[in-house]
Amino acid sequence: MTKAEHVDVLIIGAGLSGIGAAAHLAKDLPGTSYVVLERRAVSGGTWDLFRYPGVRSDSDMHTLGYRFRPWRGNVALADGQSILDYVRDTAREYGVDQHVRYGHSVVSADWDSTTARWTVTAEVDGEPRTITADFLWACSGYYDYEEGYTPDFEGQERFAGQLVHPQHWPEDLDYAGKRVVVIGSGATAVTLVPAMAAGGAGHVTMLQRSPTYILSVPGNDSVKARLTRLVGEERSYSLTRWKNVALQSALYRISRARPDLVRKVVRKTNVAQLPPGYAVDTHFNPSYDPWDQRMCLVPDGDLFAAIKDGTASVVTDRIASFTETGIDLVSGEHLDADIVVTATGLNLQIFGGAELSVDGQPVKPHETMAYRAMMLSGVPNFAFTIGYTNASWTLKADLVAEYVVRLLKRLRSTGTRSVVPVRDDSVEEVPLMDFDAGYVQRLVHTLPRQGTVAPWALKQNYLYDAIKLRTAKLDDGVLDWR
Prior knowledge:
monooxygenase; FAD-binding_MO; 2 domains; FAD; oxidoreductase
């Protein structure tokens, strides 16, 4: 029997998080052996998978970019191809691209306390392949890359046009001159609608069951441009990053403390960009408070501009059924459509779908508690990267990477073989993601829990986490080193 390959660290996923994690190992722990297993044939994760018109970041690039590698230029909300290029350039710069194994779908990982190693099994062309590792790091995000979420719509089989989900956008989709209905009102929908309208669609209708908070932001950061002229690219990136972190944090805190005030401000900005007399309170006045769900940002008000010039419209109603020619609504209205895009959300899937076990006993994530929102109680030498829901993903990903590097340095310098968070059963449980988004609520019961006190509690606050995680003692009475 051939001996399995062994590495110090095995990373699952070669997207934004996985490339960043590996770059941290390369620059901060030289000599560490690692591999990155990626189920798809290419790197980039989300930014390679999504190919729909207008795909772009839904948070500013000066915080979505890595802390250690500046996002160059002044573009705030960048297009998907530019982000993909940035991720892949990072991989090349730090030699990460030489460590990625493509077509490896991780199906299971078992920790053996006797050898203090993970045995990871991946499927490659339908055949199992195993690799052992001292440390396992899941960087595959939290949604299913194979299938997006589409509700069962009454009568959809009768629709004679094309039904498309943004996660599987056909390369040859011709929507020139076509009547398009985009179902949804989240970040994907508000990106698609103006992009398709500008791309030659006959008319694009955003059909939403209920409104979302939508805020126009400048497409380019003028402060960053001025800072770059004064202090250069790298320093301006750092300063702009902190400026945007402070603004994001302030908006979130004010939204939670003074929701009525933020609601009024957002409404006022919407009114200013929409046609006179537009039904703002019907289409842009959500029933929930700001940041109960993620707020959608639109660069330079492109969605509002498309509505104003008549190439796009918004309908707030419920679907009664599909027909051969479009969609019947509960109100009795009918929407004619040649193409219907179901921008209806994602399916959650943690750890890339891999089944974890410890000494042969399956790990049930919902029965574990998340330590610092990056490790699981009772699971040794394991970390996972999940970004913020109220700020840029990479802010948290960088902090997780820095903390994991600290753990690995401690293991190496002391000769310790394993580290595991030990749960305090007196700590009360709450959901890991306190977020009302549909994709979270559908499967929140399957996720790890978090606690109500540190280090089991997630603050969703980068400024707080940046201080706590960088200064936290590794001998905190919760981590068990063996």
